[in-house]
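the two lines:
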Amino acid sequence: MAGTVTTDLAFFTGATGGSSAADAITDWTGTGLVLDTVAFVQGTGSIYTYSAPSTTSRLADFACTSTSIENKVIYFWFALGKVGFLDTKAAGGLRLRVEDASANYGEWYVAGSDTLPHNGFICHAVHTSITFDAQSATAPDKAAITKICVRAYGSFPGKAYTWVDAVRAGTYLQIKAGTEASPATLGDLYTAEQTVANQWGVLSKIGGIYFVQGQLFIGSTTAAEDTYFKDTSQVVVFKNALIPSGFYEIKVQGNSTATTQKVFFGNKSGTAGIQGVSFRCESGSQTPKFKFTATDTYVTDLGVYGSGFVAADTISLPAYSTTREVLNTSFESCAEVLPNTCIVTNCNFISSSARAIRISSASHNVTSSNFISCQTAVHHDVGGATGSHLKYDYNALKFTGGTYHIENSAVTPNYYIDIDRLNGSNPDPAKIYNSNGGSTTLLEIGVPLEINGVKTGTEPSNYVRCRIEKQSDNSTIMNQEAQTSYGTEGFYKATMSYSYTADVPVRVRARYKGYLPFESTGTITSGGLTVTAVWQADPNYTP
Amino acid sequence: MIANDFKIDFDKKKISYVGKNKKVYSVIELYSFLQDTFDEPENMKYEIPIKALSSTQYKLINGWTIDEQARKYLKEGILVAPLPST
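prediction for all of em together
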């Protein structure tokens, strides 16, 4: 069963019974308006402007019943004979204009000869919270708009045309339903978009890449409505439209009574996430980034596998469950990721311009991940009291570059944090930032030291002597015999646990008469140190 | 016994002869004696003093020296070694 697609996008109702669907001329006024039943995108027709003599403007105005456009996006399709007819965007080549009953108006400059990629139908999106580029002395009342106008300005030769189709207001597309055998997919959204009766203009597809200019809801908040969504190996790009920061969003949602609520981006192979979905912005510097919100725990299964987020706004994940996880996913140039206690494993956080991830609970499940050139990698905002520090485990968290590896922003008095570095976690002690005066302590960690590959040949009577000493002052770290046998080739090893605080350059020795003395240098890192001695019989030794 | 006749000054990195019986040792015996001494746990902190260049040619390394008197009690091989500075 394919996914079911719904939306809150709606046409404006005409003042005298017409519709902004532009399938009839009723309630439309402007520059020689004519219904075109041949060239259109949505429904059964579009409205075109025509003028025998040349003009400097082409107006297509729709009179509607009083309608609130607050906090909505107005979508409209527009085409023209030649892009070059228009003024530039800055000069207001293509404008969306709204008026209230007092003829107060506001205009957004939507596009121009310098921004339109082609002269065919394009759906433009304008969020009504965006500041007007031009307006009357008194701004229009957005809660009671009575006219929606698509106006083009420039140099239009005689007989040139412009077209307008399907003017709507709304915010989102939603997909729900689907089954494991036939999941709901992005393709279902696109199929619904392509239906001539719909053509909302929120989701398009060019060269196999989905382009989005609205909110996408996956799942249903309506009681008992199931969702099984899964898509793989897709690219989703959020367009650089007249949309404010914080509006674009992919929201995974559910309800308390459905029996199946599962959402997957990509596949899981063993413990690895693969074949995921790449979410990104059209431009890394554009204002409308996109949020990814998947905090709804009614969704029992969430899999973000082998996916990518580029230039995303806040990414919010749900509380821990063995069936909710983010694996092998990259977050590049994104805003702060809020993992809650969700499983986040084998992920890469790259080039965050501020904080990469906020870990607020000692019960977090962010493991085996890399932080590469992030301004601030891990941000903790919760600490403990002076006598009971809050301990965060770092399990195989690797840090490379960046300004701060750890920020402690907890506030007094509970701003004491201990970090337990496990399995090679390597935050740099010099890159800790206590932004509110707190205290962050890297706990000493026991790391393994091992010298192996040696033997006297007379064990257990005699063992090879092994030593590790600091290069800095020759002080002893290890001085013991290799008494532990391993493998099947008769070799022995010496091992010990070392309390690591920082990298230590060392000198390593293994000696036993009858064998060439072994000596080398190395560094004890957060992963410890293992040295295999080059062990050779000494042909010149005479007992 | 070579251990009684040759003295190792670990601090000054100096080998000298202190034997009473004037016994002469081969260079390879000195080599083996030193290797046996420096693999003891308490001596692991010191740098190895000698290396073999061949079966008959040896060299003191890592700043170790042997005094002129001690050289008189070595035979059957070549020992490349600086004299102690004092």
